[in-house]
Design goal:
single chain; disordered C terminus; seven-stranded parallel sheet
């Protein structure tokens, strides 16, 4: 049955892919995004678009909506350390306003984009939802605070909610992919080296207790992630706050990622040795048992080469479109003599 959903932050990477999946499933979608980090071109065709802030969601949210999928947030770990007030204002303050708007409009289903950063540096892997939540930066702390807020909303007001804690999201889906500026994720950074727009990739530490000495991370394809969100909408139960980790359950090292990019692209990828970064755990791998049991979700795009191939195709297409647009602008801006035909 077709339903109507509001997707906050739907002009961003994950939000745009989820919005596209909702539309393909036959649902009506409205994207709310202030375009501070999102891109208008990323809003899927067929979705209504509102350029606005989640703090003002009450202006647009009404009882015609069946649920909200909430991706709008500030999400740079490093920035959160030097500008924590921005993260508390946007992530916590914005979600407070969104929950109030949902309560007022009678919209009682929410899927929240949470993060593995809520766990901090875990003692054991794979990481389960029962692991201690001890975030090491304001970004993770604000996401955890929102999870606590949602739990309270479910208990007090009967909200049906699911928080999906992502590990490393990667890949692309059709015309939707990563456009972060600045970019901080490993796969698109390594692809920039392959494209020639970056000289080398920095490897932060090669003496970790892992098979090749570099950090190991759990990568999940963005399309697998999107499918989990649609399943979470169906699984959400009034009065319950369901929390699920989303990952492949296995990890790839930094060097494995670099070598895979070399094989997929056929380009050299120079490395630059760098020291360890403070707070980088050796291994972060998710247990997705809860998502499998409660959502019926199993990732089907777990092959690293496939993830990199999809990201590479998107990066090449984006670069080509940028070159074409630049050439068109230059052509259109040629100064011609007055009176010429």
């Amino acid at each position: 049955m077709s339903k109507k959903y509001l997707v906050t932050g739907g002009a961003g990477y994950v939000g745009s892919v989820v919005a596209a999946h909702l539309l393909e499933a036959g649902h009506e979608v409205t994207v709310l995004d202030d375009l501070s980090t999102g891109f208008r071109v990323s809003v899927p065709e067929g979705a209504a678009f509102i350029e606005g802030r989640i703090q003002d969601a009450a202006r647009w949210l009404d009882s015609s909506y069946d649920g909200v999928l909430h991706f709008a947030a500030s999400s740079q770990v490093g920035e959160s350390v030097v500008n924590p007030e921005k993260y508390w204002l946007n992530n916590v303050g914005g979600t407070t306003a969104l929950l109030a708007a949902m309560r007022s409009a009678g919209v009682r289903t929410l899927v929240f984009s949470s993060t593995a950063a809520t766990y901090g540096e875990p003692d054991t892997v794979p990481i389960r939802e029962s692991a201690p939540t001890t975030p090491t930066n304001p970004y993770g702390a604000t996401k955890l605070a929102v999870d606590h807020m949602i739990s309270g909303e479910c208990a007090a007001h009967g909200l049906a909610a699911a928080s999906l804690r992502y590990f490393n999201v990667a890949g692309a889906y059709k015309t939707y992919g990563e456009r972060h500026d600045p970019e901080s994720h490993l796969i698109p950074l390594v692809l920039q080296v392959a494209q020639g727009s970056r000289d080398a990739i920095s490897v932060y530490g090669d003496d970790y207790p892992t098979p090749d000495g570099t950090c190991v991370r759990d990568y999940i394809h963005v399309a697998d992630l999107a499918e989990a969100h649609l399943l979470a909408l169906d699984a959400a139960t009034a009065g319950e706050h369901l929390i699920c980790n989303l990952g492949n359950g296995s990890g790839f090292s930094v060097r494995e990622v670099i070598e895979t990019v070399r094989k997929v692209t056929g380009h050299p990828v120079p490395e630059r040795a760098a020291g360890r970064r403070a707070g980088d755990p050796a291994t972060l791998v998710a247990s997705a048992d809860t998502a499998r049991e409660r959502l019926g979700w199993t990732p089907s795009r777990s092959d690293l080469a496939g993830i990199v191939s999809d990201a590479w195709a998107f990066a090449q297409n984006t670069a080509q479109n940028t070159r074409t647009s630049t050439q068109t602008v230059l052509s259109d801006s040629v100064v011609r003599p007055q009176g010429s035909c």
